[in-house]
């Protein structure tokens, strides 16, 4: 059959049948999330704004908010000078939407776009961040909050919070002129130690943030640690924080005088603002060695006071992730080794055993199960629906925040003792010599990353994946 202009036209029309038209219409009204260089006032007053990379021109990026079960749709536009992708941290997402550049999708090149369209199944406090050269891209500012509201508003119930605020914490390494310290991006000495620690902590992009609150109100604070390396112990003296969720997942409400957030972790707390608030209420962070510094404060917003909330705080509605079946789980181990003072004598890289010198030359200083970031074989495979019990053993001298993509897990034990919270999480802090056991139902098919969320550690060997089939 010869192809005439008429048949060509017919074929063209056939390709534009309704579903295709509907898809085009849907793509046209996709909200845009654009990553590009911009500036932000993260240095103290007296310095000019610092060059950063941001989503939507702000640091942190715009808060994305949906109700549980709703879709999140964003056209990612890459205005950066390098490849990127957006990861929706903690969301039990369809694999193709997970945003792990090079694993679940091709990296988006400069000038390119990628349409993210997924359902957010679980209410809670989540976040999104770059997942290509994340040790650099997140440190330059590419992160933002993703809040999934309960289907039925939790607000307004007796004893519940009357208002809420998202507090995204970040850690910047600024040089004397207030610009980001770019020369030390990728510094292997940092990576072999705690990671790229900064010298300036911001809340919602502001140094010394002053957050207006209402006297007498019951306030839900959603705390997100978006730092690439810094573990943040937090206190709010003058308030009696009640912890209600970890990594977005509800826990039975309990007093939490000290809140510990490893990189990528979240905590939701409820605080009762005193009716007689006359001085700012400081938010303190342990900068190391029990040196508590003020990183921001809650101040009187000047609105009419509310009568104090006396009732108990109700627990959040339970989440929907399946509970692990611990009767006959698939047992797996993830052994961490390497780093400063724990020298990685040998590990597999590029499919062969390499020694310390070769590994350092390849910028690998950490390993999982004797493999320094090779991606050809998974750490483990699990059949769909199987419960996996994973033992995390830290043989290094450094703490690590281990994150699994696509799943929530239960923290069963810590240092061989039952964990106090038995919380569902997506990121868990594993200290040296303190094994942690987690379990989860491998119910989300695909290849999922498994890595340390100290992002320099991830880049230098603490990266693997698991497959659910
Ligand atoms: Cu929040 Cu693979 O990361
Ligand atoms: Cu680590």
UniProtKB/TrEMBL annotation:
Q: Which residues form the Plastocyanin-like domain?
A: 40-150, 165-273, 360-468
Which InterPro entries does UniProt cross-reference here? Answer: Cu-oxidase-like_N (IPR011707), Cu-oxidase_2nd (IPR001117), Cu-oxidase_C (IPR011706), Cu-oxidase_fam (IPR045087), Cu_oxidase_CS (IPR033138), Cu_oxidase_Cu_BS (IPR002355), Cupredoxin (IPR008972), TAT_signal (IPR006311)
Domain of life of the native organism: Bacteria
User: For this protein, what is the EC number?
Assistant: 1.-.-.-
Which residues does UniProt assign to the signal peptide? Answer: 1-22
Enzyme class per UniProt: oxidoreductase
The name of this protein is Mco protein
- Which species is this UniProt entry from? Jannaschia aquimarina
- Read off the lineage from the record: Bacteria, Pseudomonadati, Pseudomonadota, Alphaproteobacteria, Rhodobacterales
Which gene is transcribed and translated to give this protein?
Answer: mco
């Amino acid at each position: 059959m010869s192809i005439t202009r008429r048949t060509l036209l017919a074929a063209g029309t056939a390709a534009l049948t309704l579903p295709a038209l509907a898809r085009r219409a849907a793509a046209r009204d996709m909200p845009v999330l654009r990553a590009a260089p911009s500036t932000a006032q993260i240095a103290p007053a007296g310095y000019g704004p610092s060059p950063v990379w941001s989503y939507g021109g702000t640091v942190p990026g715009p808060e994305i908010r949906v109700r549980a079960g709703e879709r999140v749709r964003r056209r990612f536009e890459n205005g950066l000078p390098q490849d990127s992708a957006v990861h929706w941290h903690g969301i039990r997402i369809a694999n193709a939407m997970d945003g792990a550049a090079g694993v679940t999708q091709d990296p988006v090149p400069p000038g390119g776009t990628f349409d993210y369209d997924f359902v957010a199944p679980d209410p809670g406090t989540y976040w999104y961040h770059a997942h290509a050269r994340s040790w650099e891209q997140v440190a330059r500012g590419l992160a933002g909050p993703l809040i999934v509201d309960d289907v039925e508003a939790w607000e307004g119930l007796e004893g519940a919070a009357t208002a809420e605020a998202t507090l995204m914490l970040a850690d910047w390494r600024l040089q004397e002129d207030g610009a980001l310290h770019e020369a030390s991006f990728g510094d292997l000495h940092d990576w072999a130690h705690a990671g790229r620690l900064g010298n300036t902590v911001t809340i919602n992009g502001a140094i010394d943030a002053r957050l207006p609150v209402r006297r007498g109100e019951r306030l839900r604070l959603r705390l997100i640690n978006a730092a690439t390396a810094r573990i943040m112990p937090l206190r709010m003296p003058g308030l009696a924080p009640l912890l209600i969720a970890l990594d977005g997942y509800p826990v039975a409400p309990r007093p939490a005088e000290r809140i510990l957030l490893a990189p990528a972790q979240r905590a939701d707390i409820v605080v009762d603002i005193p009716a007689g608030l006359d001085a700012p209420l400081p938010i303190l962070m342990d900068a190391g060695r029990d040196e508590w510094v003020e990183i921001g404060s809650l101040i009187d917003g000047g609105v009419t006071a509310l009568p104090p909330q006396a009732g108990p705080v109700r627990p959040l509605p339970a989440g929907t992730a399946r509970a692990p079946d611990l009767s006959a789980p698939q047992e797996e181990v993830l052994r961490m080794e390497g780093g400063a003072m724990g020298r990685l004598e040998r590990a597999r890289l590029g499919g062969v055993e390499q020694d310390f010198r070769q590994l350092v030359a390849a910028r690998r200083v950490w390993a999982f199960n004797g493999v320094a970031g090779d991606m050809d074989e998974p750490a483990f495979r699990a059949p769909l629906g199987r419960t996996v019990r994973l033992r995390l053993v830290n043989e290094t001298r450094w703490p690590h925040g281990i994150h699994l993509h696509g799943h929530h897990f239960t923290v069963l034990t810590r240092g061989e003792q039952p964990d106090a919270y038995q919380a569902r999480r997506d990121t868990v802090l594993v200290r040296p010599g303190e094994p942690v056991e987690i379990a989860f139902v491998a119910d989300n098919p695909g290849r999922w990353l498994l890595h340390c969320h100290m992002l320099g550690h991830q880049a230098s060997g603490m990266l693997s994946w698991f497959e659910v089939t």
